[in-house]
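Escalated from tier 1: nicotinamide-adenine-dinucleotide holo job.
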Amino acid sequence: MVVKKMFINGEWVNSHTKEVREIINPFNQEVIAKVTEGDHEDAQYAITAARAAFDNGEWTNTPASERGKMVLQVAQIIERDKDELAKLETLDTGKTIIESEADMNDIAEVFRYFAGLADKDGGEIIASPIPDSKSRIVREPIGVCGQITPWNYPLLQAAWKIAPALAAGNTIIIKPSEITPLTTIKVVELMEEVGFPKGVVNLVLGSGPTVGNELAVNQDVDLISFTGGIDTGKKIMRAASTNVKKIALELGGKNPNIVFADADFDTAVDQALNAVFFHGGQVCSAGARLLVEDSIHDPFVEALVERVKRIKLGNGFDEGTQSGPLISAEHREKVEKYVEIGQAEGAKLVIGGHRPSEPELQKGFFYSPTIFTDCKVDMRIVQEEVFGPVLTVERFNSEEEVIQLANDTIYGLAGAVWTKDIAKAERVVGKLRMGTVWINDYHPYFAQAPWGGYKQSGFGRELGKIGLEEYTEVKHVFQNTNPQPVGWFK
Ligand code: NAD
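Tier 2 regenerated the structure:
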């Protein structure tokens, strides 16, 4: 098996230690690839390359319209090779091929969107209060950007970072999750066709505490953009303080899905399942906390349980599979621990809570969709991100109560409100402390709309116009059109 390499300064290289990591298919634990395992020295090499490429100005001085065309070419290449990329994503993550195909379409759209934005901001003239002067604001690239991504949406998360950073004229070092690096490696290979100058795009491979930490701590990196867990986010903030680098953090969520009694019952049931069990619940915005108005609580739970029984787990490549395995043995153990915690806390397990028994699923890291009722807001199972197929259900009796409950975690990534009373929906939405709120829907996101969290779900935004601005510095340029001595020092 050929060992996949890192891409540094325009060349494919092995790590200096020559260590190799095996990449596993979570459906059957087969080794699907071997990749070189970098460490902090390899990351330093990539940072030096990205620094030199930024400082020599070739990329920064490339007209924004040209940069946009090159980013557009990435979109076109991804679209051309999307079938191959989708297969690789399913192999590496276990998610269904339909999900992977949808991801690839979204990824191409993200590159297309930022390609279009690249030359749209021509700066701003401001009304100077000083006579005989001109005052303007320009946006400039920040510099060298370290970008660290998680395993759940490997290429999608990489696209959210790579596309705006390049469109804005930065140089990048991308570090995918060590568990799922394959599609990111493939896209960097494909990006060679576009011909970005040497050192503009760098890819490093390896673990978080070595390679990732170096990107966060190194003084030659100007910005660190991280998507992952809250504990890692805190470490990155500390490491980034060395040179006060800019930070963008997209962390986890424990997202409330609020169903009022006047909601369309069947649609709300259907979407509540999709909100939490899509991709085995391994979604930062998963609707893992269901809050149901008391008067419909029991039939709602009954309908959910009926539907959960029919969820088809299996190989992501098989037609009919609705959910694949969890990403790793370790992650499944974490989910199992939370189920034990929930039971010990007194939540009532109404379905799931075990590994599936089908013989064909035994090699994969599968876990059965699980629902807890009788949940209280102070339980750990309600407060903490499980990141698996586990739904907690709470009851509420009033608008005020549900707002209070929904906001009562450290997270603030996303949430949803289901009701036919739009005035009520707007009242509730106005009080939810979350970066994205859906009314009568769950999950939609797209390149045009910003994505990010309130509270400990992070700060900074990806996607949308603001997603490009995050990769820029703001400069105020003041010009005196009639210079005169000030005369202060006689
Ligand atoms: P993780 O924090 O374990 O790892 C994420 C990345 O950080 C990986 O590339 C890892 O190698 C790296 N890393 C680990 N330790 C590091 C360190 N000390 N310094 C620098 N880098 C380090 O997260 P994960 O398990 O890969 O992903 C799951 C988490 O990601 C969940 O909490 C989920 O909610 C979150 N997530 C958030 C969003 C969002 O948009 N807010 C999207 C996807 C995933």
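The longest strand covers residues 133-141.
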